[in-house]
Amino acid sequence: MTDADELRRRTRELLAAYPPATTDRLEFLRARFDAGLAWVHYPEGLGGLGVPRSLQVVVDAELESAGAPDNDPRRNGIGLGMAAPTILKYGTEEQKERFLRPLWTGEEVWCQLFSEPGAGSDLAGLGTRAVPEGDGWVVNGQKVWTSSAHNARWAILIARTDPNVPKHAGITYFVCDMTDPGVDVRPLRQITGEAEFNEVFLTDVRIPGSRRLGEIGDGWRVAQTTLNNERVAIGGMRLPREGGMIGPVSRTWRERPELRSHDLHQRLLKLWVEAEVARLTGERLRQQLVAGQPGPEGAGMKLAFARLNQEISGLEVELRGEEGLLYDDWTMRRPELVDFVGRDAGYRYLRSKGNSIEGGTSEVLLNIVAERVLGLPAEPRTDKDVAWKDLAR
């Protein structure tokens, strides 16, 4: 058994062999992965040592105190939080060896080709088609709200492979090369002025059979692994006390006493407590993950994350008064990551509006919590046993 002391020893050996001050960043990250210290709960040879996930904090603490570089997780959140656990669970050995190392080091960024113009909340109704041809597939369709598609090398993709069965049963899961012919990425400008989202058009894109994840027609089950991990990744991020959106408004309150009022004080206290409850609940959820895969509880965390961000950012704008109405830059950009705390209050207010849409709308997540967590009766579904091709669209 590898315990905390053994992990500290291995981490210090890594630091001695690759001193962070004199080692190229990418070289250090590759060495960390090869030493099994990337994500310690993954199998040996795939960036881990097969030990409990809870021991990751031992490695991270040693590396942080030594000033070691990280893999800039915000830049490749979809890869780390969604693609990697799906590949680990359903990928072949060849797929795991090919994709996981450059994914973790950040050499290859990933995006998620799930939502479509006519299949957002009802994702299983998607119409992008994958038709078999030779030893592979030809894909045609359109995806939308694709974060980081303009930076991504790879995408996780679900497409319809059988229109003659009910919608959930005719979907297959693929890995798509974003540099292949026929992949067209177009920016979608948001209320912030930026375009971190995209729409992606797929025209006769050829995907080899070796890039299918899971069985043909089993894509919906594979996608549930991705979606459950996505909600945990969005709503269950590890934060220190006053981390996230509550931090900037708390600092403003302390540093600008002239802005205070009794009403704002009461609202801030309420939101501070709720943010701390959400942070501690997220910590408990991460501890539960040590025992297995994330379940629908992540939907509740994501719900809380979206509501709190929107309420806190609204309070911050009110607290700042006229200053809160200012916005730093409307320039059209295609950023590599979302930086909530590094921008001004106006950006936080506008960008948080998307939190209740991205990663599953709050309305859909409420249904998931009601049915899968609380065990309430499911809503009537008339399309459950109807072939996808016969559904009204």
Topology:
Blueprint: H1 4-17, H2 25-34, H3 56-65, H4 77-90, H5 93-105, E1 110-113, E2 129-133, E3 136-143, E4 154-160, E5 171-177, E6 183-188, E7 197-208, E8 212-213, H6 219-235, H7 246-255, H8 262-289, H9 297-320, H10 345-351, H11 362-373
Parallel strand pairs: 1-4
Antiparallel strand pairs: 2-3, 3-7, 4-5, 5-8, 6-7
Task: Please name the defining characteristics of this protein.
alpha+beta; 13% strand; 11 helices; 393 residues; four-stranded mixed β-sheet
Short description:
By secondary structure, the protein is an alpha+beta fold.
Main sheet characteristics: 4 strands, mixed
Distance between the termini: 56 Å
Low-confidence stretches: none
Shape, per Cα inertia axes: globular
Helix-residue proportion: 40-55%
Rg is 22 Å
N-to-C SSE series?
Answer: HHHHHEEEEEEEEHHHHHH
Order of strands, widest sheet: 1-4-5-8
User: Helices and strands: which structural class?
Assistant: alpha+beta
Beta percentage is 5-15%
Report the count of strand segments: 8
Please explain how this structure is put together:
Helix 1 (4-17) runs parallel beside helix 3, helix 7 runs parallel beside helix 9 (297-320) and helix 8 runs antiparallel to helix 9. The chain is of the alpha+beta class and 393 residues long. The chain has a four-stranded mixed β-sheet. Strands 2-3-7-6 form a four-stranded antiparallel β-sheet, with no helix packed on it. The termini are far apart. It has helices at 4-17, 25-34, 56-65, 77-90, 93-105, 219-235, 246-255, 262-289, 297-320, 345-351, 362-373, and strands at 110-113, 129-133, 136-143, 154-160, 171-177, 183-188, 197-208, 212-213. It has eleven helices and eight strands.
